[in-house]
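To: structure desk
From: M.T.
Subject: fold request, one chain
Message: Could you run this one when you get a chance? Sequence is below, nothing fancy, just the single chain.
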Amino acid sequence: MGEVISLAASAAGGGVFGLVGTVIGRVAGYFEQRQAQAHEQVRWQHEAQLLTLQMDARREAAEAEIRQAETAGSWTGLAASIEADAAIGDSYAWVNAVRALTRPVLTLLLWLITWLVYTSAPEPEQAKIVETATFAATAATLWWFGDRGTKRMAR
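Reply: Done. Structure tokens follow.
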């Protein structure tokens, strides 16, 4: 009978030891899984941040291209306008006189409109209207007279 008890004790001890090993394995597996999930979560956060930075860089590059295209278009328009003005050539004296007076008269009219708007516009709309009129008058003054400094009329 001692052998049976010894055999039963060995079986029970082996079973308990096997269960303890299984529990330890499961606990270790649980912690490994948590660690793997934490690692994956950090990796996904990093990738999300990287994608966000890439999108920001692309957006900034696109905005820079738009600004460059707008600037290039403005300069192209200015160059075409100056070329068209230079291509007109000489005509009758009275035509040249009218052409020479067009810019100053239009500029004076723009500044007169600006002054009239400033003195007679209702208060809420006054600021926006005056800003627009001032922009137009300033642009006209600088553009129209800016390219006249070096030209001399032939007699």
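Reply (cont.): The chain has a mean pLDDT of 80. Let me know if you need anything else for the meeting.
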